Amino acid sequence: MHKSVLLNEVIEYLSPNANQNFIDCTVGEAGHSLAILEKIKPNGKILGIDVDAESLKRIKTKERLILARGNFKDLKKIAEENNFHKVDGILFDLGLSSWQIDESGRGFTFKKDEPLSMILSSDQVVTAQEIINTWPEESLLEIFKKYGEERFARKIVQKIIQQRGLSPIKTTLQLLEVIKRSVPFSRFGRGRVERVAARIFQALRIVVNDETENLEHGLEQTLQILNQGGRVVVISFHSLEDRIVKWFFKEKEQEGKIRILTEKPITAGEAEIIVNPRSRSAKLRAAMFIGEI
């Protein structure tokens, strides 16, 4: 079962009230949205956006939850198409849902043998398999250093180049095996190798789906559709994403357009981490729109 990360904190910082309207830019399995809907009864509505059409199909129709398939890089356009011209809060949860990781079969996890796709949207045409098997060595190195912040990036890339010269790397377990040979168990232990693999897989997913560029575009548009006093909350799971949010908020606060509500990122408590280990890396930042565009 999917567990929404930092649910109580999302409600606290979005501060939803009766009859207000909100946008969930990454509705996923709608856990956050359903909790917000309870707070904005009787007439408040939520526009739930997701780039993954299959995820939207999994949501049981709920009154006052309007679903739209799209990428939040087009946030303003999607909002206007659905008559959400001004809203009181916008949420970005940048993590994958449990279903996408465990059941979608798209290669987001190295704990199952799946094709190396990592595509969230049918609009994306470049798969992780294509990147691994055809992109030049220096491009792979940049991906794993920039988006994975991986210290063993060069060793892993060298092994990938060596392996793909013999036969294509097509599945998650084949890639995991390459990573294992780059970071020996004997030296670092199983847990360390899995952490390295997690960073490599995450880096590939970010590049396949243009996630950092899309986040920058989406954040810029939030201030065009928030009411005065409206709030934006972002949950990130990667230090690069968190830095993008941090510097966007700082820049807009200096311009007098927002007030930052979280001096430091909010993280999950021990109790939540025990119940939902994936919340361990979550960081929440929030801000309030106070200026005119």
Describe the structure in your own words.
By secondary structure, the protein is an alpha/beta fold. The protein contains 13 helices and 7 strands. The protein has 2 domains: 170 residues, Vaccinia Virus protein VP39 (Rossmann fold), CATH 3.40.50.150; 84 residues, DNA polymerase, domain 1. Strands 3-2-1-4-5-7-6 form a 7-stranded mixed β-sheet, with helices on both faces.
Write the element-wise H/E pattern from the N-terminal end onward: HEHEHEHEHHHHHHHEHEHE
The CATH topology of the largest domain turns out to be Rossmann fold
Given the C-alpha coordinates, what overall shape results? elongated
What would you give as the CATH superfamily of the largest domain? Vaccinia Virus protein VP39
In CATH, the architecture of the largest domain is: 3-Layer(aba) Sandwich
Largest sheet: 7 strands, mixed
Distance between the termini: 41 Å
Structural class: alpha/beta
Could you give a quick summary of the protein structure above?
It contains 13 helices and seven strands. The model has no long low-confidence stretch (mean pLDDT 93).
Q: Secondary-structure blueprint of this entry?
A:
Layout: H1 7-14, E1 22-24, H2 31-39, E2 46-50, H3 53-57, E3 65-69, H4 75-81, E4 87-93, H5 98-102, H6 128-134, H7 137-146, H8 153-166, H9 172-182, H10 185-208, H11 211-225, E5 226-236, H12 239-254, E6 258-260, H13 270-275, E7 283-289
Parallel strand pairs: 1-2, 1-4, 2-3, 4-5
Antiparallel strand pairs: 5-7, 6-7
Helix pairs in contact: 7-8, 8-9, 9-10, 11-12
